[in-house]
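Query form — protein Carbohydrate sulfotransferase

QUESTION: What is the three-dimensional structure of this chain?
INPUT:
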Amino acid sequence: MVKARLFRLWLALGSLLTILVIIVYWDNVGTAHFYLHTSLSRPHPPEPPATPGPDEGRDSTSDVDEFLDKLLGSSLKQNDASRTQPEQRPSLASSRPSLSNMEESVRGYDWSPHDTQQSPDQDRLQAERRRVLKDYCANSSLTFPTKGRSFDDIPNYELNHLIVDDRHGVIYCYVPKVACTNWKRVMIVLSGSLLDQGAPYREPLGIPREHVHNSSTHLTFNKFWRRYGKFSRHLMKIKLKKYTKFLFVRDPFVRLISAFRSKFQLENEEFYRKFAVPMLKTYANFTSLPASVSEAFRAGLKVSFNTFIQYLLDPHTERLAPFNEHWRQVYRLCHPCQIDYDFVGKLETLDTDATQLLRLLKVDQLLRFPPSYRNRTASSWEEDWFARIPLAWRQQLYKLYEADFVLFGYPKPENLLQD
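ANSWER: The structure tokens for Carbohydrate sulfotransferase are given below.
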């Protein structure tokens, strides 16, 4: 018995020493400096301890969890207390990317400033969004794949949308076609993960688009395994408990329309080869197609919205490969029933939500959210876009995205689902 206790003690001490080495030497993007914002974090009830079996002693990994929790918690408090005053807000960059007429028409950028004032109703609205999400995650009447699994059951490769900023204690789950380019820019500025002529970017809009979507730019949860090995899940759970977690969502059908317009109405070589060519061959009966997207567009060969919907509904699509992130369901990207999000923003209220979030993160004097990329894909367009889609297809499509509608409080589009 004594030898067994000594062995467990040495094992725990060895594990703790390994963690210290990891934190001190392996962290090259600032994860040794943990800052916690508690303004948004809600109290989390302690998890009930696992009941050991008759022959089981105290698991050494519980010692590791306890040590990590204390270590990171003390670091967060110390760094938060010693934080200096926020920097003066930089002026917005005046340069704008050059856009073709077609891109301007499809993306519909709006460069006018949108200054908003905080309203007491916004706090109540945010609380209601979180309540709806929590209630439906606990409601057995709503079922969808992966709902019942735990956070430990989520594979690492499904955690690649969770971007971590350890400097300010923020975790952002990005959803493509929901202002994610600009939110990624904000995360880059906050984390200081990208340099411009030797200095971190201070202005979000100054970060080139190609760098924004480069996966090497961001620290995401799926990178933790390579960095922390078997302790990666312990660190994830601690950060999920202590950091402020947010995401932005959008009406699911409008997001689909936006994804279609962006990826198939604009010349995109990657999406043409990987998606458009198979769609045109499988659903439009084309046997020979141009090698490049520019040639295809000149010949008038484009994927129709009808073909795109047919592709989404085809059971073979999911069997061959998971949905592309631009049309993958939010519940599959961000795991809202496994992660207790502190802030749920919506594209429909982007300006007020962005202002509220930056203020609550206490970084509103450090930066401001870039001018809105107001995609002109509006909810009022849904009837026009779906007019030529068979009713049965619309009903199937709703079932495919029903969880996103319900979890995030979007009304069921009855006008599209009935004759």
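ADDITIONAL NOTE: The two ends are 74 Å apart (CA to CA).
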